[in-house]
Amino acid sequence: MIRTIFSAVYIFILVLRTAPRLLPMQKLAETIPPEEKDRLVHKTPDWFGKRMVRVTGSKVEVKGLEHIPQDRAVLVVANHQSNFDIPVLMGYLTKPIGFISKVEMKKIPIAAHWMELMNSVFMDRSDRRQSLQAIKDGIETLKAGHSLVVFPEGTRSKSGEMGEFKTGSFHLATKSGVPILPVTIEGTHNILEGNGNRIRPSRVTLTISEPIYEEEYRDMDLKELARYTQNIIQSKLS
């Protein structure tokens, strides 16, 4: 319990520490090329993600960094075990990324503004029309050269098990033509959700598989592509 309280307070302080960087970065982002803006913005989420994980006492092992295309946007497709998946990806993926995020995140002060700077797209899953618009916005974001992360399970598993991947997320790749980067997250649920929402140290593994390029998925339908990607991610779980 003491670790949980300390971690929560520390994370709150981390968020506050990013606030002075926010306005200058917003102004700078309007005057520099998109690639340079993404690189500079990424420094803060990278810093925040690593420290958020470290305060829990957890260790992250990363495999397959060489598989990340650095010269183009990708759609990162990952399984979703925990709320800690996001800081792990921000801190250890070594590539500027935004997220397809639930719309409730827009209500969180400071964090919401950073997510906008990261080119994140907010989706209201309870509103079909807005969800479709969010997918369209995500496609345009990818076409503009900004990488995005999507969790096709739609919600956290809160365990080591994986839910079925929903096909709608894969429109983001098929309509934009970007590579799909399968990423397997293992161990994050043991930080929080697997302990009755009490923080404990965990050993986390982030495994990055080879990209699936358009030439490979072009002739697949969405169900085939979702199943194919899920099998790759599932195969890296212990």
Order of helices and strands: HHEEHEHEHEHEEHH
Largest sheet: number of strands, sense, barrel closure: 7 strands, mixed
Overall pLDDT level: 93
Query: CATH homologous superfamily?
Result: Glycerol-3-phosphate (1)-acyltransferase
Q: List the uncertain runs.
A: none
Name of the CATH first level? Alpha Beta
Helix percent reads 40-55%
Q: Give the distance, in angstroms, between the N- and C-terminal Cα atoms.
A: 29 Å
Neighbour order of strands in the largest sheet: 1-7-6-2-5-3-4
> What is the total domain count?
1
Number of strands: 7
- Seen as an oligomer or otherwise, the chain set is single chain
Give a structural overview.
Helix content is 43%, strand content 14%. It is an alpha/beta fold and 238 residues long. It has one domain: Glycerol-3-phosphate (1)-acyltransferase, CATH 3.40.1130. The chain has a seven-stranded mixed β-sheet, sandwiched between helices. Helix 1 (2-29) packs antiparallel against helix 2.
List keywords for this structure.
single chain; 238 residues; alpha/beta; Glycerol-3-phosphate (1)-acyltransferase
